[in-house]
Fold these 4 entries.
Entry 1:
Amino acid sequence: MPYRRTYRHAVATAALSVATAVAALVMTVPAASAAPIPLVPHRSAADPADPADAGPGAADGTGTGPVDEAWRGAVGAAGLGAGRLGRGADHLTVTVTRSGTAEADGTFELYCHPHSGSHHAAARACDALDRQTSWGKDLFAPVPRGAKCTMMYGGPATAHVTGTWAGRPVNADFRRTNGCEIDRWNRFQPLLPVTAS
């Protein structure tokens, strides 16, 4: 019966290896009460934050506090962009054509967290996008193929949005050619303008 002995030996060795790995993992992971993880406060669009602030948490606005250094390290390790925080993570370029108003047509930059850029409603646009963002959902996904949409025309306005939002690349086109596309456009207001038609 050497087969049974070899099999039992292999199972015992594997079980011991797993137990050793679990024990090592438990020893290296700090206990939940050992040291609290510093939480960085989220800045809303209503905060009067200086866009030149290099990171969250510094009371003097210099971005040099210990929380800022930890935050920079975490962002860099996660690959969320080098450079200034906020601007490296959530940045959109919006190009609008034929909206019916000359002020709304053109190319605009939008930075969020903190909000800034050439977009005419940066704070409201960032807040609206934040409210719609949820993990696992592509906020900028197009209308699904085969969707049953009303046959209504919302005008010739078009928009193209590129950049990065919530760590995901964005490359989205918007138009107002049927009810579904109009509804999608309206969900993105004020990122996209109210059209004249």
Note: Helices lie at 2-28, 66-78, 122-132, 179-187.
Entry 2:
Amino acid sequence: MEQHRTRPPQSRPSRGGTPFPPQAGRGGTRTARQSGARAGAGSRSGAGSRSGSGARPGAKARAGVPRASAPVPALVQAVRRFPNPRLTGLGSGLFCTATMFALACLIQLLFGASLVVYGVLFLPVCVLTAVWVRRADLVTAVVAVPIAFAVGLLPIADSDGGFGGRVMGLVTALAMHAGWLYGGTLVAGVIVTVRKARMMTRKAAQRRRTA
């Protein structure tokens, strides 16, 4: 005959009992840690916002203040407003020669072949020729200036008539007023030298930046 196995009765916890203390302790510890972390994050964000709000007005104030620029002299402003073409070597020679010949004809009409006025007007023409020539043809400005001075003397040089007299008058004018020729050539040479030095300095700076 089969015998039915009987299990001993097990005691079940009552529903109205207190919760287990280990689980309550773990849950309480986690809750406290989470609340403390949240409080710390909130305090840090509040401090960061206060520090950021305190630094922003100063930065905005510094950024909003315009920088005081150095005053530009009136001479520099006038030079900047002046036209700034770039002439080739041939163009600079033609410009200087044509300008001096036109000025010589004008002087012949107004002042009666005054070589002093011609020499005074020769200096600014030399300056413009040396400034307007492009960087690749700087040397041609120094060569074109004396040629233009000699060509411009043809209308105002004293002559006895004929080709030989015209040549003798030109040579005499060059010998008597060579100071204007040397002065204009020197001015053009100085300007060309300064421009050449600046160009070499810029090239060296660019090489150092790329290196």
Note: Residues 90 and 100 are 16 Å apart (CA to CA).
Entry 3:
Amino acid sequence: MAFFTADLFIPLALTSVRGISATLAGIVLTAGIIGWTAGAYAPARLLKWGMTKGGIARLGAILVIAGLTVIGAVILTTVPVPVPVPVAAVGWIIAGLGAGLGFTINSIAVLDDAAGTVGRASSQMELGNQAGIAIGTGLAGALVATMGATAAGLSGVLVVAGAGVVLALLASTRFAETHPPLTPPER
């Protein structure tokens, strides 16, 4: 929820508040997708190296918080010296990496369900994902509609996204701290 909520408003924030072109704002979004791709690839490796699913989920949430902080600094700081816009791409790579980790490890956790309730768990996960995105984006959109595409209105978007990350961080404590191997042991 947090990544998508912010992602939808980054072009507006960068063009309205910082005055950059839509092309440069698009490059920042592309950086986030590159981070997401890397983050989606990493959980399998991290599990093989002994990291727990909960640890990976918490790492993902922390990276999204870090990325939101960087993008917020780029969008909202103009005095005394604005943070350079290319830093936004770095921040959004970090956030994308975290989101990729988080979404992928959630799917792995559901597919590893030993209780045999994969169908129910996966539908609940998907419903939660979509509801979170809709609620976060709706709240953020209402803030921008009320306050305008200003630094104040768009900082509200970051607050909503940040709240979503905090919820994800809290939910990550519910992961089982052990994990079965991703592949069956060899005989």
Note: DSSP finds six helices and no strands in the chain.
Entry 4:
Amino acid sequence: MVRPLGELEDAVMTRVWKWNRPVTVREVLEDLKLERSIAYTTVMTVMDNLHQKGWVRRESEGRAYRYEAVSTRDAYAASLMNEDWGRSDNRAAALVAFFRMMSADQQQALRDAVRMVQGPEAPTGRPAEQPTEPPASPVAEGAPPAAPEPEPRATPSAEPAPPAPDPADGDGER
């Protein structure tokens, strides 16, 4: 079972996913402080909890840890949708209702995704042959995936990530 992230966990993970690189507690703290008053130890505890839950991995760098997402926001969202959809007594009706809630752009994105999964149409109008084994679920029962596929690092963003701190300043992150 995938549990939704708490409000502060989501705020932290949003930054980790957006920056798409290993980050320190201090970097996340400084960005969170733009929105709210928050203590260093609070952010450190949340990031440690995310590590214990398997959402981030960390590596020691001097006296600090650098945290990196184990999975993508898309995989997280997909696992939440899949779990909620699985609770429905009538999955087809749930999908129809979901589709009707979507904007035209969202509906087109769904059509595009279905085409990507099905592959090119066969001449008979039926989808091309599918593999006999479905792909592995992006999130295992009860926890995020242990080993995600690597993502490209250079992703342009409207908001630049904060500059990396000077490792020589020794801010005691751990």
Note: The helical segments are 7-19, 25-32, 40-53, 73-86, 91-101, 104-118.
